[in-house]
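Thread: Newbie trying to understand structure tokens

Hi all, I'm a second-year student working on a class project, and my supervisor (Dr. K.) asked me to get a predicted structure for one chain before our next meeting. I've only ever worked with sequences, so writing a 3D structure as a token string is new to me. If someone could post the tokens and maybe explain what I'm looking at, I'd be very grateful. Here's the chain:
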Amino acid sequence: MPGTKRTASGVLGGLAGLVGLSAVAGVLISATVTPAIAVSGAAASSAITMFDNLPSVLDIDKLMLPTTIYAKDGEGEWRELTQFYDQNRSPVEFDEIAPVMYDSILSSEDPRYFQHGGVDLIGTTRAVMSNVRGGGETQGGSSISQQYVKNILVQRCEAEAKATETTTLEEERFNCWFEATRSDGTDGIQRKLQEMRYAIALEQKYSKNEILLGYLNIANFGGTTYGIDAAARYYYGVSAANLNLAQAATLAGIVQNPNTYRIDQPGNEVNGKADGYAQTKQRQQYVLDRLLDDGKITQEQYDAVYDAPLEPKITQPKVGCAAATGAEYFCQYVRYVIERDPAFGAEPEDRIEALRRGGLNVYTTLNWDLQQTAQQAVRDTAPTSVPGTKFGTSSVSIEAETGRILAIAQNTRFSESITDDNNYSSIVYAGDSRFGQSNGFNAGSTFKLFTLIDWLEKGHSVNEVLDGRLREIPRMTNSCNGDWVNQDSTIVGNFNKVGGYTGTPVQFTRDSLNSGYFAMAEQLDLCDIQKAATKMGVTRGNGDPVIMDTQFSVIGSNDVSPLSMAGAYATVANNGIYCQPKAIDKVTDSDGNEWTLPERECTQALDPKVAATAAFALSSVMNPGGTGAFGNPSDGTPLLGKTGTHETYQTWLIESSTKVATAVWVGNAEGKADMFTNWHNGWQLSQLRYLLARTIQGKANQLYPGGPFPTPDSQLTRQVLTDLPNVVGQSVDDARATLQQAGFTVVVGDAVDSPAAEGIVASQDPGAGQVAGGTTVTIRPSNGQGIEVPDVAGQGLDDAVSALRSAGFGNVREGSCESSEDAGKQPEATNSNPSAGSVVNRNSAITVNYQQRDCGGGDSGGRGNSDDD
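---
Reply by user tm_fold:
Sure, no problem. This is what the structure looks like when written as tokens:
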């Protein structure tokens, strides 16, 4: 309230009113106690003393004001999403109210307002005498100043009201109003005297105009509509400054008994549309009579309105998240933040008061263009329900560099009252139990992110080759809770029953291969994977840390929120910096003072080298051949991402540019409907995630253009050398197992000639030694027909032939002859073809070359006939 602007005549009027009313009130009070005894001057003097001793200082509290939620539109301007309030009120200044409204309220409620000093003695005396007689409602007669006092006291009482063991909050608030307006008898007189005392003191401090404005801003006009501007907008769709005579006279009539004369209940049997709001019309005509009598309107104006029907134009104010059309679930998330974050009050009731009465201006992080695209995509793509289950679809997009939540969309229709129809919900599926009332959903393979992060943090390369075949994993280390042991020898399969293979983490990530990730986790500590999730902002939906206690934990058995998972992937895209998600940019109070926001911070959760290398591996998911490629908007923006499926009940796709991360979940909020056998508009429900993600992320890429991800670390992408074992001499099956266990891909070639038994590995390529991990090794089994050619050089020709035949060769022939003066008298074998030591099929032809002094017929040509002579 502004400072004092008191006139001299007003002060004198106030003093006269004080003395005169004190005497009258004293007499009346005495009469109620001793009605048969004449009231003496001493009694009147005592009453005056009592009146003077009543408290006179009334502090005017701040009005209960709505909290308004804002978001920026496509032009960068703040637009109102909705309001929350116990009292719908929009306070205005004195010159923002039409003069005809002032005339109407004064002529009908307090025609001597500018002549008295806070109390209209004539009207008050009449009311007090009526109340002393009792037997009915408390009579009026209060001045505007007194009514202002009463409203101040009622508001204060309502603001401080609390539910008890026997009464609700609404009942306590009703009691406030009842005691201030409907009490009679001695208590009524006592309250009336106090009201008068406050009113006189009020007029000694404030000007008439200030009090009149204060009253019109605080007064109730029916239901939750408070203040003249809110009433004008609600009942007629105009501001207080633009009220005409008919409207002003109606509102002046309503304020006298708001819930009787309100005109927003057309079905009311005693004052509704059917009878032309007869009671309100009668009250309006009373106001018009007073205006005419006071000379405030002309006869012509009077006649034009007096018999004209009431024509309300009810304009529902935006209130609650149901009114935040197109952004209901984002609004609900913001509401939960205000109601549950200590930044808005130490106790729950403090936070609710801040939301519903604090007059806050809450400027959110919502990007209206992206929100419209996301909600329209969900509306066009996903059904609001699926028979036999509580079907859900949610998308959430966050700014990677800040954690600002840019959009939240959901398939269900928003309602906080409809609980028996699966098409409706007030639960924010993107959030968790604290901010959304959701317990989260099984993450599926999107949770593999944290195994990948821990793999890199332990110094492993994404190009290291592992045995990713389907096999039993006997044990996984868990230093937090004790190792997990596969007591049932269970082999967990891959999605869609695909086979496993020996490969690298990049390949496992691209193909979302469960068995490959089990091979990675087998070399890690489940406790460290849990810690990776925690430092990247992921908890279970109920706020507890994720649980890593089984093999299934690696592939996403934990229930997590889409928002937290979007934040984790944004961390990778943001060079390892994790930013806690936030929905509010700024909060100011009704005086423009800025509030301290809820604590949200950005921290370096990952080494940038780890983040860059993880982005490299995750990018393969969104590229052609990756499981998420169908969800890529293909606009040239580099993306990383991951798909996820929990059995057939939950499906996910999370993708991120360097600027915005979007998480899409489609599945069962409750129930177990199969996302792969149920269809909508020609699409499997499991495919909806791709359609949604590419549309929403595509819009995000337009609004927030992303750039290339950092180059992956050379050490974390290095080729890893490993020992290649020697499997020659093993059976083919044993050799294959040995090589695959060591991380090699095995190819079995054609059988080769070998002296080894048939089926025994005769050769491998490459041979044993240090090779790049994952090298393909070709093994060739023996056909059992191979014989090693013996060395027959130096033997006589006949002996050499005989030796070869004895070795098992059946086709031995003499070869070429070479003349030599050093040769003996008999032919001497020099070599064989194939050569000595060669392994040759037993049926192969073996020739024995030899030498003698004279081969006859030239240098060769067979055994000669000459002798030493």
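A couple of things are worth pointing out once you decode it. Confidence is low (pLDDT under 50) at residues 1-22, 24-40, 135-139, 864-869. The two ends are 150 Å apart (CA to CA). Feel free to ask follow-ups in this thread.
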